[in-house]
Amino acid sequence: MGKRHQARELALKVLFQLEGTDDDPEEVVLYHASENGAGEDVTNFARQLVDGVIANRDRLDAIMSEASEHWKLDQMAKVDRIILRIAVYEIAIDRKVPTKAAINESIELAKTFSGDDSGNDLLAELEATMGKLAEGTSPLDELVAAHQRAVRLLADAQSRLANLKARAEQTARLLAE
């Protein structure tokens, strides 16, 4: 089993424990890392996943809710919901792992922690989510598009302001003559 797979398992265990509690994420990461004999690389990658999923949980849940055609998030098994969050985080937000690798890893996690049939259900949910992301209809894509529009508007406003300032300076020079 590779280090990244071990880290995903560790992240899953940590996020599972943290769901619905006020436990300190760092303490839970360190506890599970110690219990599993995880090395520094595994622990650090697991920590990145945990922190990323926690920081983006609302966005991840919005993406998953919008894409899910068969299940509401609260109807999913807790472990499946967390596996999906990790996969969607890696695919849609972190983007450091190829989509296929993240999907395969999530299916393996589902087979290990949720049973063989869950892998198929999870694959269907991930395919639906990835389809929505590809269509550009996810809340994340809408947020990115809104940000890009705001950046363009700001650049346009700065350009207009610079033009007005130049005209005002030119007018002031003409009046001073």
Account of the 3D structure:
The model has no long low-confidence stretch (mean pLDDT 82). Helix 1 crosses helix 3, helix 1 (3-18) crosses helix 5 and helix 5 (78-94) packs parallel to helix 7. It contains eight helices and no strands. It has helices at 3-18, 25-35, 40-55, 57-67, 78-94, 99-113, 116-135, 139-176. It is 81% helix and 0% strand. The protein is an all-alpha fold. The radius of gyration is 23 Å and the shape is elongated. The chain folds into two domains: 3-135, NusB-like (N-utilizing Substance Protein B Homolog, Chain A); 138-177.
CATH architecture tag of the largest domain: Orthogonal Bundle
End-to-end C-alpha gap:
80 Å
Enumerate the spans where pLDDT stays under 50 for 5 or more consecutive residues. none
**Residue share in helix:** over 70%
Number of domains: 2
Shape: elongated
By secondary-structure content and strand pairing, the structural class works out as: mainly alpha
Main beta sheet: strand number and arrangement? none
The CATH class assignment of the largest domain is Mainly Alpha
SSE run: HHHHHHHH
CATH homologous superfamily descriptor of the largest domain: NusB-like
Oligomer: single chain
The average pLDDT is 82
Number of helices: 8
Strand content: under 5%
Which fold does the CATH topology of the largest domain refer to?
N-utilizing Substance Protein B Homolog, Chain A
